């Protein structure tokens, strides 16, 4: 049964790319959210923690996405940085909005992160890692 599933997936590269994006995204999110939570735990406010975590996470994310998800694309460091700058502003606005309803900074950061996953995939696929 597993062999049939892998053959089916091999015939659908778009599905495989989305699955790789999700798996790598879990790793990237764990890294970024771990930085955010660790900085909150160290006493930083949620906005400073998000900024620092985002900057450090951007480099990590570029490496993982370019090596494991969008492997056929050429170098895209500048477009990636621009997309993540826009993504950061969206995340910041989302954190501000969610914080109006969710007092806990850990939960507010998690909700904000989950909200931008789909948009980030579309931006990376269509605008950043173009063939």
TrEMBL record:
Annotated Pfam families: GtrA_DPMS_TM
InterPro entries, per this entry? GtrA_CellWall_Glycosyl (IPR051401), GtrA_DPMS_TM (IPR007267)
Keyword annotations of the record:
Membrane, Transmembrane, Transmembrane helix
Classify the source by domain of life: Bacteria
Give the GO biological process terms: polysaccharide biosynthetic process
Give the UniProt subcellular location, in the record's own words: Membrane
GtrA/DPMS transmembrane domain location: 20-129
Topological type in the membrane? Multi-pass membrane protein
> Which GO terms of the cellular component aspect does the record hold?
plasma membrane
Give the stretches traversing the membrane.
21-41, 47-66, 78-99, 105-124
What's the family? Belongs to the GtrA family.
Listed name of the protein: GtrA family protein
């Amino acid at each position: 049964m597993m062999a049939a599933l892998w053959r089916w997936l091999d015939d659908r590269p778009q599905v495989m790319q989305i699955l790789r994006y999700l798996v790598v995204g879990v790793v990237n999110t764990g890294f970024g959210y771990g930085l955010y939570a660790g900085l909150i735990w160290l006493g930083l406010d949620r906005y400073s923690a998000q900024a620092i975590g985002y900057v450090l996470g951007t480099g990590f994310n570029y490496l993982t996405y370019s090596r494991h998800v969008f492997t056929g694309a050429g170098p895209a460091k500048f477009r990636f940085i621009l997309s993540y700058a826009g993504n950061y502003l969206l995340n910041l606005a989302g954190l501000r909005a969610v914080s109006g309803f969710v007092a806990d900074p850990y939960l507010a950061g998690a909700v904000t992160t989950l909200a931008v996953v789909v948009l980030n995939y579309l931006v990376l696929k269509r605008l950043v890692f173009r063939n």
